[in-house]
């Protein structure tokens, strides 16, 4: 068996692992980055990037139709949409990401990395990497597969197939009302598929405020999606002409492809965690510096989806910066400040996680979606009905919410839903993280005529 020694070994070459490795190198540490699939990871090839490339044309077409005088057609050109998506993903060629790692001073290593002992990672069973200071696990998440009778007799789509397919199915069934389910249902409907979305509740996106689900439900139906609420898939069977889905309400659908979008779980299986006394299958519990709590010696760190904390690419990269900077500081014998606002800690997931759902209408939220139980928090909801939104689109439909800590007079949560609200989100994130008092926020004057005027209306509705 061959062996090499590094200061840091990062397992997982997606965006989170790339950031961890780059920050470690920046901190003066010799670093290896191990990846068994594609450098660039899930986000680059099968998730965030291709899904948004598929969604954008349909959103733009819908927006153009809301402005009289704009010459638009009635349908997208799927071939051009797929070609643009493939440009972003490189058709799965990760050569550029591999070479980027080398150029950044990282040692990229292709293969399956398994922890085989303290500060030890074995790649493909025959290459032992020893880390002088730390191993950082950034292996992301994997899909949850529900136990549905007959599912193992077909080849269902997962999120990877849904974002990489290059032919429009005539009929697509989608199970799941979360982010992947609603985004892919709408994307494929705008590309010309007859889409049936099956959800268990009254509305999609149940973790958000109810008005979010209501407006997204309207948008899905407006895009041509058939939404089956208060239902589920009882069983699946392969039949002539496609796949038969028997819903829990007894309805039977026949589709050409069936997308199962029922969530994800931390990707800890197959990492060899048992060799260091850590149970695999669940998330790696970490402190705010990214150090894994269950492992003695302070050498194992983790960031991203694998921790179960705010499974979003931007949050994972944020956590990776804290973990790698902590490792670099400790390697130099420096003291690590673990206070909440230290650069060595990732604390935003405690109170200010921003997320955008790129449907039409978009959903942009950060912090709490509702008042805390038993608190004096106040919730203010208004329609997004300002000069900026009226000029932006005829018949503009949207809502906004703020959750206010009335005792401290600061924001705890903000939610926007409407066309093109994603770019409003960072101002809300700054207001929450910065704990800007509402009477101070009153002096942040929104430009006229923009949708940002909604901030003024929210504060007025609150009573300022």
From TrEMBL:
<protein>
    <submittedName>
        <fullName>NAD(P)/FAD-dependent oxidoreductase</fullName>
        <ecNumber>1.-.-.-</ecNumber>
    </submittedName>
</protein>
<feature type="domain" description="Pyridine nucleotide-disulphide oxidoreductase dimerisation">
    <location>
        <begin position="353"/>
        <end position="455"/>
    </location>
</feature>
<keyword id="KW-0274">FAD</keyword>
<comment type="similarity">
    <text>Belongs to the class-I pyridine nucleotide-disulfide oxidoreductase family.</text>
</comment>
<dbReference type="InterPro" id="IPR016156">
    <property type="entry name" value="FAD/NAD-linked_Rdtase_dimer_sf"/>
</dbReference>
<dbReference type="InterPro" id="IPR001100">
    <property type="entry name" value="Pyr_nuc-diS_OxRdtase"/>
</dbReference>
<dbReference type="Pfam" id="PF02852">
    <property type="entry name" value="Pyr_redox_dim"/>
</dbReference>
<dbReference type="Pfam" id="PF07992">
    <property type="entry name" value="Pyr_redox_2"/>
</dbReference>
<dbReference type="InterPro" id="IPR004099">
    <property type="entry name" value="Pyr_nucl-diS_OxRdtase_dimer"/>
</dbReference>
<keyword id="KW-0285">Flavoprotein</keyword>
<dbReference type="GO" id="GO:0016491">
    <property type="term" value="F:oxidoreductase activity"/>
</dbReference>
<dbReference type="InterPro" id="IPR050151">
    <property type="entry name" value="Class-I_Pyr_Nuc-Dis_Oxidored"/>
</dbReference>
<dbReference type="InterPro" id="IPR023753">
    <property type="entry name" value="FAD/NAD-binding_dom"/>
</dbReference>
<feature type="domain" description="FAD/NAD(P)-binding">
    <location>
        <begin position="6"/>
        <end position="314"/>
    </location>
</feature>
<keyword id="KW-0560">Oxidoreductase</keyword>
<dbReference type="InterPro" id="IPR036188">
    <property type="entry name" value="FAD/NAD-bd_sf"/>
</dbReference>
<keyword id="KW-0520">NAD</keyword>
């Amino acid at each position: 068996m061959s062996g090499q020694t590094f200061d840091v070994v990062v397992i997982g070459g997606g965006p989170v692992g790339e950031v961890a490795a780059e920050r470690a190198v920046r901190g003066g540490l010799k670093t290896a980055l191990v990846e068994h699939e594609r450098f660039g990871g899930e986000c680059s090839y099968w998730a965030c990037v291709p899904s948004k490339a598929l969604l954008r044309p349909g959103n733009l077409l819908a927006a153009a139709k809301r402005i009289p005088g704009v010459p638009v057609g009635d349908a997208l050109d799927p071939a051009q949409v797929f070609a643009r998506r493939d440009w972003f993903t490189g058709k799965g060629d990760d050569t550029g990401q591999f070479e980027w790692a080398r150029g950044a001073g990282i040692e990229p290593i292709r293969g399956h990395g398994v922890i085989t002992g303290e500060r030890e990672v074995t790649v493909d069973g025959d290459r032992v990497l020893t880390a002088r200071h730390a191993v950082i696990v950034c292996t992301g998440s994997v899909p949850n597969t529900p136990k549905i009778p007959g599912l193992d007799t077909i080849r269902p789509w997962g999120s990877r197939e849904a974002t990489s397919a290059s032919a429009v199915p005539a009929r697509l069934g989608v199970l799941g009302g979360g982010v992947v389910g609603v985004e892919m249902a709408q994307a494929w409907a705008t590309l010309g598929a007859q889409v049936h979305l099956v959800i268990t509740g009254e509305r999609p996106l149940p973790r958000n405020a109810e008005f979010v689900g209501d407006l997204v439900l309207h948008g899905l139906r407006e895009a041509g999606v058939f939404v089956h609420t208060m239902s589920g898939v009882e069983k699946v069977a392969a039949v002539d002409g496609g796949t038969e889905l028997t819903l829990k309400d007894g309805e039977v659908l026949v589709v050409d492809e069936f997308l199962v979008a029922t969530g994800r779980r931390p990707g800890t299986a197959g990492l060899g965690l048992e060799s260091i006394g850590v149970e695999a299958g669940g998330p790696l519990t970490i402190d705010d510096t990214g150090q894994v709590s269950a492992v003695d010696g302070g050498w194992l760190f983790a960031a991203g989806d694998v921790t179960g904390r705010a499974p979003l690419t931007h949050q994972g990269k944020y956590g990776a910066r804290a973990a790698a900077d902590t490792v670099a500081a400790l390697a130099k014998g420096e003291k690590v400040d673990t206070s909440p606002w230290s650069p060595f800690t990732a604390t935003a997931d405690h109170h200010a996680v921003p997320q955008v759902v790129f449907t039409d209408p978009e959903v942009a939220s950060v912090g709490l979606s509702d008042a805390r139980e038993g608190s004096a928090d106040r919730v203010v909801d208004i329609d997004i009905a300002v000069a900026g939104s009226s000029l932006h689109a005829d018949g503009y439909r949207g809502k906004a919410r703020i959750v206010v800590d009335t005792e401290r007079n600061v924001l705890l949560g903000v939610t926007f839903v409407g066309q093109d609200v994603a770019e409003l989100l960072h101002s809300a994130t700054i207001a929450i993280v910065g704990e800007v008092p509402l009477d101070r926020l009153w002096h942040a004057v929104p430009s006229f005529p923009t949708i940002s005027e909604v901030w003024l209306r929210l504060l007025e509705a609150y009573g300022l």
